[in-house]
């Protein structure tokens, strides 16, 4: 919903101007007013979205909070009010019961608490300077205050008197072998529909990023049931498979479909903006972010305020080809690892590209109940043997088999940038502009960090202009080459 910043210090007065500067750097994360609150040792700042209510604060000495998020069981109440109410009733353990994406900082002026949702749908970073600690939604807001910037870990809360405490750990979710196939198909369908419904707000202009793959198509079908007029968006190069498949889905469900056909020059032109907002130079993440940026720009132009996306399904329903080569126990552990990594990968990409245009992501597959249920499913429900062929995401496909054309339900997995037809353009451009000698000379940027290609070097050089501190490297999630087909 917004960008947030906070400072906690014994001498907070000297950080007042600093906090204002930090907040300005996050202006794109909101399109309304900015608010700043001083509470003894704490300063809290927030960029508000259009027409959002100002966070309510009582008399001096009361607890105040700033939040970026959407508490799903309280859709008509600002998240700050829900957080304050639950904190006062339950104490810090209330974070275990929050449903939805969130990052917040809460303080009574003497003590401070900060927290992030279990899988990191909402971003949060922190840095420490002397005896002070600062928080912000994005890295760029913290630059200049300290050279050491850290990722606030998902599933944790921080207390100024306790430090970091883990409150949610998905690695402890065990497989339930008693679940039947029929039960799994029924519940997967039910839970996805419910996850879409509870994120839906009839008073918002809501669209769907539609690639024509099974994940985004399932979300689009569910959204169309809620809206008389649904907008769907797709981009790609001329003749790309995503454009073709998305058109078929849009025609099938009757959505108002929007397309943008881009070329190599479009991609090169927006590259600095993409990397600035993405805050990463990971080769595969940048490729997909370019496509996401173009989608977001088009959706913003059409007046959208929130966008549904299909991200998160591959990580919990086993959508990656390489998983077929692993033993069942290895698959379960890998799915948990992928889900834990997503806050530095696909969730970061979706958040940053949409927030570059002040729009809000909706990610039903990352719903707490769906993640928990999917990770409990036996592996053969996800990687299922169909006449000698192992089909990935089988239970998800079968759950919606009557809702979509057969060619969409059984469409093979493609990388986001491959489906859009753009995968080779940026690599070609890097090859044209970076010599072999330059690559071998500059590819090692740190003793623990070696760039993988000329393309990644090209991205890093742009990234380094915006984020020059070496310590920022520790915030970068690197996509393993074995699972680059993220969509």
Compact summary:
With 487 residues, the chain is of the alpha+beta class. It is built from 18 helices and 20 strands.
Second CATH tier, the architecture of the largest domain:
3-Layer(aba) Sandwich
Overall helicity: 25-40%
State the CATH topology of the largest domain. Rossmann fold
CATH domain class of the largest domain: Alpha Beta
Which runs of at least 5 residues are low in confidence (pLDDT < 50)? none
Cα radius of gyration in angstroms: 22 Å
Number of helices: 18
Structural class: alpha+beta
Tally of structural domains:
2
Biggest sheet details: 6 strands, antiparallel
Question: If you had to describe this structure to a student in words, what would you say it looks like?
Answer:
Helices cover 37% and strands 18% of the residues. It has 487 residues and is an alpha+beta fold. The strands form five sheets. The protein has a six-stranded antiparallel β-sheet with strand order 2-3-1-8-7-9, with helices on one face. 49% of the residues are buried. The protein has helices at 16-24, 79-90, 181-198, 214-224, 241-253, 264-278, 283-301, 313-317, 328-341, 346-355, 368-376, 379-382, 394-399, 406-409, 416-419, 425-433, 436-442, 454-466, and strands at 4-8, 34-39, 42-47, 64-69, 102-107, 112-116, 125-129, 132-136, 150-151, 156-159, 163-166, 206-209, 231-236, 256-261, 306-308, 360-362, 384-386, 389-391, 444-446, 449-450. The longest helix is centred in the middle third of the chain and has 19 residues, at 283-301. α4 (214-224) runs parallel beside α5, α6 (264-278) packs across α18 (454-466) and α7 (283-301) packs parallel to α10 (346-355). The chain has two domains: 4-168, Glutamine Phosphoribosylpyrophosphate, subunit 1, domain 1 (4-Layer Sandwich), CATH 3.60.20.10; 172-483, HUPs (Rossmann fold, 3-Layer(aba) Sandwich), CATH 3.40.50.620.
């Amino acid at each position: 919903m917004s960008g947030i910043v906070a400072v906690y210090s014994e001498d907070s007065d000297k950080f007042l101007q600093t906090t204002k500067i930090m907040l300005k750097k996050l202006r794109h994360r909101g399109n309304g007013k900015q608010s700043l609150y001083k509470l003894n040792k704490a300063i809290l700042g927030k960029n508000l979205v259009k027409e959002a209510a100002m966070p309510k604060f009582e008399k001096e000495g009361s607890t105040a909070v700033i939040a970026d998020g959407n508490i799903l069981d309280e859709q008509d109440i600002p998240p700050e009010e829900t957080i304050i109410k639950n904190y006062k009733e339950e104490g810090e353990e209330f974070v275990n019961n929050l449903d939805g994406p969130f990052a917040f900082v809460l303080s009574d002026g003497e003590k401070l608490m900060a927290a992030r949702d279990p899988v990191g749908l909402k971003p949060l970073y922190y840095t420490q300077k002397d005896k002070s600690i600062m928080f912000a939604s994005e890295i760029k807001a913290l630059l200049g205050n300290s050279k050491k910037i850290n990722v606030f870990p998902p599933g944790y809360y921080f207390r100024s008197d306790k430090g970091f405490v883990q409150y949610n750990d998905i690695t402890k979710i065990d497989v339930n072998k008693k679940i039947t196939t029929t039960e799994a198909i029924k519940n997967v369908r039910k839970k996805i529909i419910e996850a879409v419904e509870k994120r839906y707000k009839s008073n918002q202009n809501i669209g769907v990023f539609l690639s024509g793959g099974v994940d985004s198509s399932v979300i689009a079908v569910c959204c169309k049931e809620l809206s008389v007029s649904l907008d769907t968006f797709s981009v790609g190069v001329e003749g790309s498979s995503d454009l073709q498949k998305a058109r078929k889905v849009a025609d099938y469900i009757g959505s108002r479909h929007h397309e943008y056909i881009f070329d190599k020059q479009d991609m090169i032109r927006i590259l600095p903006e993409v990397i600035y907002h993405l805050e990463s130079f990971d080769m595969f993440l940048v490729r997909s972010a370019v496509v996401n940026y173009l989608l977001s720009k088009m959706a913003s132009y059409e007046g959208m305020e929130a966008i549904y996306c299909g991200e998160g399904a591959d990580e919990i329903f086993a959508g990656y080809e390489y998983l077929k080569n692993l033993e069942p126990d290895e698959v379960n552990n890998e799915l948990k690892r992928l889900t834990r990594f997503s806050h530095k990968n696909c969730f970061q990409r979706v958040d940053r590209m949409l927030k570059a245009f002040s729009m809000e992501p909706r990610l039903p597959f990352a719903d707490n109940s769906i993640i928990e249920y999917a990770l409990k499913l036996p592996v053969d429900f996800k990687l299922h043997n169909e006449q000698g062929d192992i089909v990935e995401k089988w239970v998800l496909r079968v759950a919606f088999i009557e809702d979509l054309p057969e060619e969409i339900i059984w469409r093979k997995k493609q990388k986001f940038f491959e489906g859009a037809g753009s995968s080779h353009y940026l690599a070609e451009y890097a090859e044209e502009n970076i010599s072999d000698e330059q690559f071998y000379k500059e590819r090692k940027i740190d003793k623990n960090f070696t760039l993988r290609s000329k393309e990644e070097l090209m991205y890093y050089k742009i990234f380094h202009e915006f984020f020059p501190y070496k310590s920022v490297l520790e915030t970068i999630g690197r996509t393993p080459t074995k699972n680059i087909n993220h969509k």
